[in-house]
Every structure is written in C-alpha cells, then in structure tokens.
C-alpha cells in the first residue's frame, strides 16, 4: 500500500450513522496510539484501554478505513517519521535510528523496508534530502 491509497482511506468519513460508533472507536484508538508514540504498537493493550475485544477493534477499523488497526496505525507512525525526517535541520542532525525508535519502531530493518515501500525511498534518503534543502 502506498501513502496515496492510504490517505484516501484515511480521509473517508462514515457514510451512515450506524458507522459512527466504529469511526469513534477507531479515532479513540488512534489518539491512544499516537499519545504513546515511543512504544511499539500493541493492539491488545489498546483493546484493554478501550475496553473492547480485538475483534471489535478490527471491525471498527475495517468499517472506517478498510484496513486492520495495526496497518492503519503503522501508516500513521510512518507518516510521523517522514515528517520528522523532512523537518530535520542541519543544526541538530538526528539519525534515522533515533527518529524511528522515537516513534516506536524497534525492528529497524523491517521499518526501513516498509518505509521504502510506502514512500518510494529509504528513510536515510529522505533525511539527506531534508538536510540538503536546509543548507540552501
């Protein structure tokens, strides 16, 4: 899945009032996941905090975004990583590892592969381009 396809799904609002509860549950899960960006995603912990079953959470995300909670929330985190890489300045040069771990990605090899699939370039290439633009 690329970022454009995901963005289209992300922008979708519930079409029917019956979907409102699913949409609200998905938004609550997003808020909790984004409030704890420094920790790896844990769907079971999210379900516990939201007091719903994993099946209920999966269904809410499928109805709202057409994706599993894990996939959608990973895409949100990948976007946050990209934003952090792009906003890096030459004054304070972070490493890709520092940024990725700050957003809860512990398996850096898998992170890098997924980042490349979604954005079409490696995270280090994004950082290099950002630093090059910051110098000019």
Would you spell out the secondary-structure blueprint of this structure?
Elements: H1 3-11, H2 20-35, H3 43-50, H4 54-65, H5 69-86, H6 96-102, H7 108-119, H8 123-135
Helix pairs in contact: 2-4, 2-5
What does this structure look like?
The protein is mostly helical. The chain has 2 domains: 3-70, no CATH class; 75-135, Homeodomain-like (Arc Repressor Mutant, subunit A), CATH 1.10.10.60. The protein contains 8 helices and no strands. Helix 2 crosses helix 4 and helix 2 (20-35) packs across helix 5 (69-86). The longest helix has 18 residues, at 69-86. It is elongated.
What is the compact description of this entry?
With 136 residues, this protein is mainly α. It has helices at 3-11, 20-35, 43-50, 54-65, 69-86, 96-102, 108-119, 123-135. It is elongated, with a radius of gyration of 16 Å.
Global Rg: 16 Å
Largest sheet, in brief, is: none
Unreliable spans? 14-18
Q: Which percent band covers the strand fraction? A: under 5%
Number of domains: 2
Number of helices: 8
What structural keywords apply?
136 residues; mainly alpha; Arc Repressor Mutant, subunit A; 2 domains
């Amino acid at each position: 899945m690329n970022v454009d396809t995901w963005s289209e799904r992300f922008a979708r609002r519930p079409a029917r009032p019956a979907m409102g509860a699913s949409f609200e549950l998905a938004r609550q899960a997003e808020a909790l996941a984004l409030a704890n960006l420094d920790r790896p995603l844990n769907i079971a912990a999210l379900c516990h905090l939201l007091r719903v079953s994993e099946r209920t959470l999966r269904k809410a995300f499928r109805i709202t975004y057409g994706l599993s909670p894990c996939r959608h929330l990973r895409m949100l985190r990948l976007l946050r990583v990209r934003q952090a890489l792009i906003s890096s300045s030459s004054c304070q040069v972070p490493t890709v590892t520092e940024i990725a771990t700050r957003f809860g990605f512990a398996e850096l090899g898998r992170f890098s592969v997924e980042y490349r699939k979604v954005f079409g370039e490696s995270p280090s290439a994004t950082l290099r381009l950002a630093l090059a633009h910051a110098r000019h």
